[in-house]
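Translate structure to sequence.
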């Protein structure tokens, strides 16, 4: 028979566990619902402030990643770099270890704890890869090509480590390779850009966009061994007009996947056996392609990174480990319940039951502001005055302004499609205002005879 003090203590424990159970029912999606609502509605200042609140978010990595991508969408590139750098710095130790020995990631993932959600979240492998790609995009927006190339190299190295760890090949890295190719083109290092385009082709991403570049570059560099192969695969592209400008669209479309819990609670004679693992489901999306156009040209965007697909495959490669860990924890908690019942009777049994249910939860944290896909397009308009427009196929169409294009100049359009809405920023170019009428010239009185 237990003492009055023991009974009182266990009642307090029970109340504490009930409170823990109620708090733990709030998933990451629920915690961030207000911030995501502001993001979807284009209220970027509010979304940034909510995501930047680490206490609310509960993760240094995700707070930086989410707020950074909000800033990137809003055109605050300095803020994006600050937040994304903080996210990258938080997971840097694990990243460095994985680059030396990919197996080291298994140790960090195999921390046998109360539940996955109680550990510091350093990002899934694909998320750590994407942080550096997004940093590269922010540096590109600032014209810092050297910094861009540093980040995309890191992104590609981390992807290679993930593929080595799980002995697989993700159809990923196309976005980082495309950014890298653009960086080398800006520096005039076309042989390096050629390597990135080849990597995209080998991975099977963005081939409609990459193919013409491979044909043109192989011909320009007189790589006879490649010319016939690429012409056979992609055909001969339209020639680029002499002195043409270049407009490059880089766009995030839709929203990436979110995690939900697959759960099993099995009553046994010794207590409840709880097992829970995460799985991905698609968010409500407005998946589409974008069309960028000038007065006489148009091009549709091409997917260079399927974030939904990569995220799902990356989790699938980890799910066996997560399932085993949950099963082992469930068995240990059943054993604990049995021991508590022997020592404290029905109060101990109830405490063990609540403890098992409250602490065995799937980790549902993930980077929610990522797009469903990254897409890109190219246009080669003639120099001169033209209006640039952007349209989401089946959605919003916006006019980005009228520009006086100089021969050979490069203009970037960074865009994000959220639901039917488009948000875009034009980088470079000389914008002209055609709404202001030309001033009237007064006649010269001396000429009036």
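Result:
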């Amino acid at each position: 028979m237990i003492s009055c003090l023991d009974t009182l203590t266990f009642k307090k424990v029970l109340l504490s566990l009930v409170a823990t159970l109620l708090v733990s029912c709030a998933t990451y999606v629920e915690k961030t619902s207000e911030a995501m609502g502001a993001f979807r509605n284009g209220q970027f200042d509010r979304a940034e402030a909510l995501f930047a609140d680490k206490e609310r978010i509960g993760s240094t990595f995700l707070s930086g990643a989410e707020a950074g991508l909000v800033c990137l969408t809003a055109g605050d590139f300095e803020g994006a770099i600050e937040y994304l750098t903080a996210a990258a710095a938080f997971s840097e130790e694990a990243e460095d270890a994985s680059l030396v020995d990919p197996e080291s990631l298994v140790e960090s993932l195999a921390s046998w704890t109360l539940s996955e959600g109680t550990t510091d979240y350093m990002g899934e492998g694909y998320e750590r890869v994407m942080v550096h790609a997004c940093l590269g995009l922010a540096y590109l927006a600032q014209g810092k090509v050297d910094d861009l190339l540093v980040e995309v190299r890191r992104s590609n190295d981390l992807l290679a480590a993930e593929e080595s760890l799980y002995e697989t090949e993700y159809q990923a890295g196309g976005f980082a390779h495309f950014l890298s190719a653009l960086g080398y083109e800006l520096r005039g290092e076309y042989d390096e850009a050629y390597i990135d385009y080849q990597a995209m082709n080998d991975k099977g991403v963005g081939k409609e966009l990459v193919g013409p570049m491979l044909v043109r570059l192989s011909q320009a560099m007189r790589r006879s061994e490649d010319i016939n192969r690429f012409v056979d695969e992609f055909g001969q592209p339209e020639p680029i007009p002499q002195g043409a400008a270049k407009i490059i669209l880089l766009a995030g479309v839709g929203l990436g996947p979110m995690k939900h819990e697959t759960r099993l609670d099995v009553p046994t004679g010794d207590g409840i056996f709880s097992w829970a693992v995460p799985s991905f489901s698609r968010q409500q999306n407005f998946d589409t392609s974008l069309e960028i156009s000038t007065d006489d040209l148009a091009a549709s965007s091409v997917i260079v990174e399927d974030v939904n697909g990569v995220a799902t495959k990356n989790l699938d490669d980890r799910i066996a480990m997560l399932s085993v860990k949950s099963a082992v924890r469930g068995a240990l908690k059943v054993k604990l319940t049995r021991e508590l019942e022997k020592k404290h009777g029905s109060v101990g049994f109830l405490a063990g039951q609540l403890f098992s249910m409250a602490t065995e939860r799937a980790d549902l944290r993930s980077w929610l502001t990522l797009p469903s896909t990254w897409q890109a397009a190219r246009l080669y308009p003639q120099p001169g005055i033209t209006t640039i427009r952007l349209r989401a196929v089946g959605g919003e169409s916006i006019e980005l302004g009228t520009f006086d294009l100089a021969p050979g100049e490069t203009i970037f359009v960074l865009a994000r499609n959220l639901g039917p809405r488009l948000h875009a920023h034009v980088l470079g170019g000389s914008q002209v205002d055609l709404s202001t009428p030309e001033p009237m010239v007064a006649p010269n009185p001396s000429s009036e005879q």
